[in-house]
Amino acid sequence: MQNPLRSEAEAFRFLIVVIAGSAVIVAAAYINTWLGVAAAVLVVAGVARWYWRQPSPRPPRLEVHDDTPHARRILVVANETVGGRPLREEVAKRAQGSSAEILVVAPALNSPVKHWVSDEDGARAAAQQRVDASVARLAESGVSVRGEVGDAEPLQAIEDALRTFGADEIVLSTHPEGRSNWLEQGLVEEARRRFALPITHVVVDLEAEREEVR
Questions:
Q1: Is the CB of residue 117 less than 8 Å from the CB of residue 144?
Q2: Based on C-alpha coordinates, what's the Rg of the chain?
Q3: How far is Cα 117 from Cα 157, in angstroms, rounded to an integer?
Q4: What CATH number does the domain located at 72-213 have?
Q5: Rounded to whole angstroms, how far apart are CA atoms 178 and 166?
Q6: Residue ranges per domain, the chain?
Q7: Who wins on pLDDT, 140 or 30?
């Protein structure tokens, strides 16, 4: 059974039934009192039967939500250290066990003189080579990865990348302290102040890696 008044249309039909039944009762009572009583009993019984025989309401439709985790997006920002083993291992570890999309951005390093004369072709070409090599090695881990060259200013490169790549976290790679211009400039701290995302700092010692290879 359901409430017959759960909608305006059904409430209107119920009102019509009541009015019609009342009219029958009044007409019967006008002819004879006992006939009116009998009509009232029949009308009430008919309305009650109609009410109780209404179909039960259907259960509410359950909305099925897709709980499949969405791809985690990791923005990797590095320059000369973009191909370093600690960086590759950190990114692979963060991408492990989930569907991850990785964007590698390498700011185009340039000398001050070449920057002022707008001669950045060489810097961008070198950065592109580093990005391509890093992307190829990360792809060997089976993750979805692509790369691009960013603005020479690393903070601006991060900001530009976030406009088109909705990252969940940032992995920022530098040389060790004492050999990193980015660390001397306070890049990691400034990035954490500016961007409301988890930022992991990875130190890559390329000289130590070369010694290991030798």
A1: no
A2: 37
A3: 20
A4: 3.40.50.620
A5: 32
A6: 8-52, 72-213
A7: 140
pLDDT, tens digit, for every residue of 176-211? 999 999 999 999 999 999 999 999 999 999 888 776
Q: In sequence order, which residues have a C-beta less than 8 Å from that of residue 138 and are 6 or more positions away?
A: 88, 91, 92, 102, 104, 145
DSSP state of 148: E
Q: How far is 91 from 71, CA to CA, in rounded Å? A: 14
Instruction: Give the helix ranges, DSSP H, for the chain.
Output: 8-31, 33-52, 85-95, 112-116, 121-139, 154-164, 181-184, 187-194, 206-213
Q: What is the pTM of this model?
A: 0.62
Expressed in angstroms, the distance from the first to the final Cα of the chain is 84
Residue 179 is classified by DSSP as: S
213, two tokens: 């290879």
135 residue type, one letter? V
